[in-house]
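User: Please fill in residues for this 201-position structure.
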């Protein structure tokens, strides 16, 4: 089975493009979904997070993502501490899902992960798709989506590896700054190349 990574910056439209690949019949493993699973009540990661970051649980014992986000976005040491708790568990779940798809006979699959390159996961992929858009579009989308001030949005963008730093690792770059039709056409072009490799959805 061919495994391709899908990544991009915050608010570049990664989820939109991921959904287009799903619609085309490509199985997608979503790192955000795995991250939510590993911090469900009763999971060891949640207990570790509660101990390391006091006050980030809701009254019913679930993770308050907004409170945790406010703690980690402005502090790289705090982000690293959270990553040390969650990343190994996300990795284990990813491996389990990938093996299940291969066993089921899938010829190709996508791993949708914002931190694909930062965590060196691209090294395990057969290729990387980078979702890009102009900086001003990214900023406007993030402010609108998360109800952030311009300064808050800029801080969140700056907390990630930039799109230009990610570009050298990309096999394909999909520009998601235009219309949905234009983005969908680029998705189809990537799938056409996979077909030439003999990896069909």
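Assistant: Residues filled in for all 201 positions:
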């Amino acid at each position: 089975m061919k495994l391709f990574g899908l990544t991009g910056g915050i608010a570049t439209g990664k989820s939109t493009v991921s959904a287009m690949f799903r619609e085309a019949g490509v199985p997608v493993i979503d790192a955000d979904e795995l991250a939510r699973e590993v911090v469900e009540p009763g999971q060891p990661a949640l207990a570790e997070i509660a101990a390391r970051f006091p006050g980030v649980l809701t009254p019913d014992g679930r993770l308050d993502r907004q409170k945790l986000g406010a703690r980690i976005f402005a502090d790289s040491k705090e982000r690293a501490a959270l990553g040390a708790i969650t990343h190994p568990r996300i990795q284990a779940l990813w491996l389990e899902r990938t093996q299940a798809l291969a066993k089921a006979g899938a010829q190709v699959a996508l791993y949708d992960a914002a931190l694909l390159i930062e965590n060196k996961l691209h090294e395990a992929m057969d290729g990387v798709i980078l979702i890009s858009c102009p900086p001003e579009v990214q900023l406007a989308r993030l402010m609108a989506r998360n109800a952030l001030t311009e300064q808050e949005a800029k801080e969140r963008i700056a907390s990630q590896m930039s799109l230009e730093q990610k570009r050298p690792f990309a096999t394909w770059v999909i520009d998601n700054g235009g219309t949905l039709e234009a983005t969908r056409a680029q998705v189809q072009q990537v799938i056409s190349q996979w077909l030439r490799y003999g990896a069909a959805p």
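For context: The longest strand covers residues 2-8.
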